[in-house]
């Protein structure tokens, strides 16, 4: 047996949560820590209200579209921030239950490690891109003309003097940093979903190799048929456990995924609109619109892709079952195989709010909705 643990890089992300006060250890719980959590949530929700109020007050339709998009993106990030802070125990349980498991042979162990390594490398690239874009957005207001890229509603006039201008930019910069920290929770959820699809892959490999016991010591008196039956019984339990764990992550992520699916189409449309009609008229502004478009498209694509992978990998299990050495087994064992085959007949599809299957088909529907909405906005502009 070989043991797969939560990846070191994910543990480093969790350590960031502890250091900045998102999470607290059992011996550190105090009213001060609770106030810090509430401060983060209330502070980040302020940008949603500021952008929303500014969109209502702004007479320029183009600026209003940008502000509505900003409010929607940050509203989802605020919910994600709340989820990160108040669901700490559940997140840790999901990580331990889903991302820590055993594999039976060295070959499968190396296969899993290879998949995890590729995933972590992609995540590091994603983080590097997010940090680079965030740094540019933070530094941009201090280069060139004194102007806010987000004309959000503020309780003071930022044009009055340099101090007010710096204060407004400091507020926007702090909100950008907090938004980037919220995105770390998205990465943790992606990691958990990736491990769900990986567990189905491992389950398929184990089903295919039933009775072989590669890499294990001999059981002595057990013959090959008894070993096959014993493996079959263990795999039935593993299959039921995996389905239960995927249902747990479906239940846990249902709210946040529903919000992402519901708002991503509008946000993608808003970004394309701002780029198509050059709303900002400046290179830095275009970069901000492009980064927003990249974040929304990438985020919803990766989420739906992992849901799609879970469906595809679970759908393959019945094929792996009949690739195993089941023909020469006794009738009682064949009955167990038939029962397992019935359980594996339907693929496991994650359905959000009983409306949206988490598959690439949903991603395509979101893009089509964005395109249709963009055409409507374009017709109003003309």
Q: What is the count of helical runs?
A: 11
Give the integer mean of the pLDDT values.
Answer: 85
The first-to-last residue Cα distance is 66 Å
Strands ordered across the widest β-sheet: 1-2
**Element-by-element helix/strand order:** EHHHHEHHHHHHEEH
Fraction of residues in helix: over 70%
Number of domains: 1
Q: How many strands in all? A: 4
In terms of structural class, how would the helical and strand content be classed?
mainly alpha
Instruction: Work out the strand percent.
Output: under 5%
Give an overview in words.
It is a single chain. The chain has helices spanning 8-20, 31-57, 61-86, 88-99, 106-139, 162-208, 224-276, 283-315, 317-323, 331-344, 360-381; strands at residues 2-4, 101-103, 351-352, 356-357. By secondary structure, the protein is mainly alpha-helical. It has one domain (2-381). It has a two-stranded antiparallel ribbon with strand order 1-2. The chain starts with a strand and ends with a helix. Mean pLDDT is 85; it is low at 214-221.
């Amino acid at each position: 047996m070989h043991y797969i643990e939560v990846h070191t890089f994910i543990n480093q992300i969790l350590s960031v949560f502890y250091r900045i006060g998102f999470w607290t250890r059992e011996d550190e719980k105090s009213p001060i820590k609770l106030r810090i959590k509430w401060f983060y949530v209330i502070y980040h929700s302020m940008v949603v209200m500021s952008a929303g109020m500014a969109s209502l007050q702004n007479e320029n339709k183009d600026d209003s579209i940008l502000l509505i998009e900003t409010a929607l993106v940050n509203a989802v990030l605020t919910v994600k921030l709340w989820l990160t802070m108040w669901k700490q125990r559940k997140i840790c349980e999901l990580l331990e239950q889903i991302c820590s498991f055993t594999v039976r042979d060295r070959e499968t162990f190396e296969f899993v490690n290879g998949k995890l390594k590729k995933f972590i490398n992609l995540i590091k690239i994603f983080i590097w891109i997010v940090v680079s874009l965030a740094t540019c957005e933070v530094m941009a207001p201090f280069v060139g003309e004194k102007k806010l890229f987000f004309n959000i509603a503020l309780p003071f006039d930022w044009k009055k003097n340099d101090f007010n201008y710096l204060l407004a930019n400091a507020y926007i910069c702090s909100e950008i940093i907090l938004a980037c920290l919220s995105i770390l929770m998205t990465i943790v959820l992606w990691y958990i979903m990736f491990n769900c699809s990986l567990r189905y892959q491992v389950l398929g490999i184990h089903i295919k190799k039933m009775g072989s016991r590669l890499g294990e010591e001999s059981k002595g008196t057990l013959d090959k048929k008894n070993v096959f039956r014993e493996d079959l019984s263990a795999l039935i339990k593993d299959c039921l456990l995996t389905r239960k764990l995927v249902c747990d992550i479906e239940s846990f992520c249902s709210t946040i995924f529903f919000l992402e699916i519901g708002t991503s189409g509008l946000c993608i449309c808003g970004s394309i609109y701002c780029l198509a009609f050059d709303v900002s008229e400046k290179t830095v502004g275009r970069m901000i619109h492009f980064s927003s478009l990249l974040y929304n498209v990438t985020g919803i694509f990766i989420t739906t892709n992992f849901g799609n992978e879970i469906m595809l990998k679970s759908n393959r299990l019945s094929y792996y079952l009949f690739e195993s050495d089941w023909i020469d087994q006794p009738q009682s064992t064949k009955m167990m195989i038939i029962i397992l085959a019935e359980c594996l007949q339907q693929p496991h599809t994650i359905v959000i709010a009983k409306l949206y299957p988490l598959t690439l088909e949903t991603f395509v529907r979101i893009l089509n909705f964005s395109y249709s909405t963009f055409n409507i906005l374009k017709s109003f502009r003309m």
